[in-house]
């Protein structure tokens, strides 16, 4: 018995399965040499003892190339869809695709995918949040297996966490006054910086005067943007954030009191003076004299020229000031000396007397009494844990302070005022203080403590859960907790050493 492949001139022997050809019927077999991809003709012939030959032909198809497989992940990745659908295409150049499968765990387990007409698909069962290593494979009728590349799918149903922030006018950090409100003047542009966690891809500040985009700061969790209010009144500042899975978070940052600009007018006629020069002077305690305040350092012009409506405004930090106004045909006018204990708006109305018909040389300026803005009270809409309520545990080690009073201070290394507060906290030797490093890792918190040589107790809250539970908005923020675990007072801003000691002395 012999066989021939593809009509070759050479016939090769086949072997009887029982070792010899000696019966009327025999089973036989043979192994070919390596055959190329494709279809081949196999001819077998047998010769009887009577020298009669019989032959038979058959064909065999050799398939060594595995199926081609491609996989498409969901269009949105990361996704908040917990039952995503995967689709793909599979084909075999020489054979037939018999089944397709998909793995979500890099090949540990495989799930059948429905295959039809070159395409396959699988809708998963409910997935938990996490990363999934997804690929597909296809089998052909020759047993070859083809596999697609791996796609990492991120399932994320948790919205971003919006942490604490600061609002600034130039280098001037704006903090609430004793009435727990922040005042500013219409038309003034301020900067808001917010810390955010959770894969944030976009963030906005929403106000009654429009929406303002926040921009990520490379290498940090900070998002920063400029905000300007053109109209007066109480303004809610809402921060919104969205992550790559389209999960959204929204939080009321603060309510601001936007005040009108001041105006310069003629005392006799009431007409607005449009070309008055308004200058702010500051008492420099180093040189012990009055100097023109450097408004440019705070994003403001000084002097200012009144517009068609006679308007002007300034926002100045704590210190001693006076305002001087000069206008053609009018007497130079000065405000009284203003001693300001915090950031204040200079937006009062001023009237100027016309020059007398006969001007005296070296005539003194008119002095007027003014009222400084920036100390009005508005309704507080940022909901915080109520005074008298139990302090949220929020994953913090409050059990270590059980039956003890505690000043719980939220800060963050990136915040300038938090750095000021950290220096003050280090000067207090007390086990009644605990700081929380909001949305910072343990490692970065320790670097912050070491660089500043700070010694106060601090815990890191990398995800910012405690900030959410306590609704921390402006940093630093303090919660005075009594020995029964109830909140007795909430304070925003930097506290001096004496203020901290006095606050702790209030409760048992």
Automatic annotation (TrEMBL):
Residues 73-94 are annotated as: Disordered. GO terms for molecular function: antioxidant activity; oxidoreductase activity. It holds the Pfam family AhpC-TSA. Residues 76-157 form the Bacterial Ig-like domain. CDD domains: TlpA_like_family (cd02966). Residues 432-489 form the Alkyl hydroperoxide reductase subunit C/ Thiol specific antioxidant domain. Signal peptide: none annotated. This is Bacterial Ig-like domain-containing protein. It comes from Candidatus Amesbacteria bacterium RIFCSPLOWO2_01_FULL_47_33.
